[in-house]
């Protein structure tokens, strides 16, 4: 009897959830303009980046906020292009 009640409750809950509209996930392909609205895009920002071939060595790279955004967009574009243009051996 308990199992029957449990199954009926689960079915009712799943039916109620199925009727609710599901919102699509937010699209995060590029930073939105409102995030950077209050920032000076010509301000120079320095970041510490790892050096290729070393676990410890770091390199300090300075660029404007706009240059960082442009580089981020290019990196994402190149990554997506590399993932979609794979050559599969036949």
Quick one: how many beta strands?
Answer: 2
How helical, in percent, are the residues?
40-55%
Strand order of the largest sheet: 1-2
The best one-word shape is elongated
Radius of gyration: 24 Å
**The biggest beta sheet, please?**
2 strands, antiparallel
Mean pLDDT: 79
- The unreliable regions are none
SSE topology string: HEEH
Class by helix and strand content? alpha+beta
DSSP helical segment count: 2
Task: Tell me what portion of residues adopts beta-strand conformation.
Answer: 15-25%
N-to-C terminal Cα separation, in Å? 57 Å
Textual characterization of the structure:
It is a single chain. By secondary structure, the protein is an alpha+beta fold. The protein has a domain at 41-85. Helix content is 42%, strand content 16%. The chain is built from two helices and two strands. The chain has helices at 2-19, 65-84, and strands spanning 44-50, 58-64. The protein has a two-stranded antiparallel ribbon with strand order 1-2. β1 (44-50) and β2 (58-64) form a beta hairpin.
Give me the secondary-structure topology.
Layout: H1 2-19, E1 44-50, E2 58-64, H2 65-84
Keywords:
single chain, 90 residues, alpha+beta, two-stranded antiparallel sheet, 2 helices, 2 strands, 16% strand, elongated
Give me a quick take on this structure.
The protein has 2 helices and 2 strands, in the order αββα. It is an alpha+beta fold and 90 residues long. A two-stranded antiparallel ribbon has the order 1-2.
């Amino acid at each position: 009897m308990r199992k029957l009640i449990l199954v009926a409750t689960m079915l009712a809950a799943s039916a109620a959830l199925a009727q609710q509209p599901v919102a699509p996930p937010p699209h995060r392909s590029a930073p939105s303009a409102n995030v950077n609205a209050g920032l000076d895009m010509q301000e120079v920002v320095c970041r510490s980046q790892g050096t290729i071939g070393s676990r410890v060595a770091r390199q300090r790279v300075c660029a404007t906020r706009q240059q960082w955004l442009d580089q981020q967009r290019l990196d994402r574009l190149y990554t997506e292009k590399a993932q979609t243009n794979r050559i599969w051996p036949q």
